[in-house]
Design brief:
Blueprint lengths: L2 H14 L2 H8 L3 H15 L4 E3 L4 E3 L1 H23 L9 E7 L1 H18 L3 E7 L6 H4 L3 E5 L8 E8 L1 E6 H7 L15 E2 L10 E5 L2 E5 L6 E2 L2 H9 L5 E4 H10 L2 E4 L8 E7 L7 H15 L12 H4 L2
Parallel strand pairs: 3-4, 3-5, 8-11
Antiparallel strand pairs: 1-2, 5-14, 6-14, 7-12, 7-13, 9-10
Helix pairs in contact: 1-2, 1-3, 1-4, 2-3
Length: about 325
């Protein structure tokens, strides 16, 4: 029995909650996974996993062993990279999750430079707006907008994204153009639902250093960024979104920015990863590349600072 392989198998079972999922993740036969765990438990003389018909979970001994395995495997990866080609040219799979609009409009168009720089890395990119359990879903790194709510993760700030309030021309022709936040009475919004609470976010406006909030009624609430912008284009109400997501529509005249003097607070963008991935060369080069990508643009400086591919030029 190769104990390091057995530890990798064991940690994946704990993280994914099942033998089959772990086998698929590691591209191993399920029978091999089962055999390795039996051999590992026999070697240690303890039961590591509690098996039921619905799920697999670690025993108390298994939970303690898992924490040590995670640290050992991370240290092993970093140690090997110090004395191998992998330090200069990391290789293997890197699983990354990010908001769909950010991936489609910003990250993916820039990826050729990253892939050329690190040709031996294989990216598995998922794009959605729901919270991701990095450990259970086997994700190495996530990009998230907004305040960081999970202090168990390592956070690397990347940018502060300009946000704007906008509406379609048809909506403004029907309802009028608000001139200040107090002029919003009688207007409606496309409400964006929080993935954490399920409740809609209020609109936010900055008057100097003062934050003003307005909760507007609306016929439609959504939980995805692309649907949010599409509903605004359809004339269903006001929205607030990062400028990169609506720059092309504003440039074409499909959407109009309103209340520009009272823009919402900039949206923090952060890369998050589990502490045990902090030493991973694959994660580090990707996060460093993201910091370089966003550092090359003045994302807080208004429309003229946006890349031309986002402005729609």
């Amino acid at each position: 029995m190769d104990r390091f392989i057995a530890m990798r198998v064991f940690t994946r079972i704990v993280e994914l909650g099942g033998f089959g999922k772990a086998a698929d993740s590691l591209h191993m036969p399920r029978a091999s996974v089962t055999t390795l765990i039996k051999q590992l438990e026999a070697h240690l003389g303890v039961q590591l996993l509690q098996r039921t018909t619905r799920q697999v979970s670690p025993t108390l001994d298994g939970a303690a062993y898992y924490e040590r395995c995670v640290r050992l495997l991370a240290d092993l990866e970093e140690t090997e990279s110090l004395f191998s080609e992998a330090r200069r040219n990391p290789q293997g799979k890197l699983r990354v999750d990010m908001p769909g609009s950010l991936g489609r409009l910003v990250i993916v168009p820039a990826l050729p430079s990253f892939c050329q720089r690190y040709p031996r890395l294989e990216l598995e990119l998922s794009t959605n707006d729901r919270p991701v359990d990095l450990i259970r879903e086997g994700v190495d790194c996530v990009l998230r907008g907004g305040d960081v709510l999970d202090d168990s993760l390592v956070a690397r700030p990347l940018a502060r994204l300009t946000q704007v309030t906008c509406a379609s021309r048809a909506y403004l022709d029907e309802h009028g153009t608000p001139q200040d936040p107090d002029d919003l009475q009688g207007h409606c919004a496309v409400n964006y639902l929080s993935a954490v609470t399920g409740r809609p976010f209020a609109l936010e406006f900055m008057d100097g250093a003062t934050l003003i909030t307005r909760a507007l009624p609306g016929q439609l609430a959504v939980n995805g960024a692309d649907g949010y912008v599409a509903a605004c284009e359809a004339g269903l109400g006001l929205i607030q979104a990062p400028y990169y997501h609506v720059a092309a529509q504003i440039a074409r005249g499909d959407l109009c920015e309103v209340l520009a003097r009272w823009r919402p607070p900039p949206l923090p963008l952060t890369a998050l990863y589990p502490p045990h991935r902090q030493l991973s060369r694959r994660v580090r080069v990707f996060v460093d590349w993201l910091a370089e990508l966003f550092g090359n643009q003045n994302w807080d400086g208004g429309n003229d600072s946006m890349p031309s591919r986002i402005r729609g030029e």
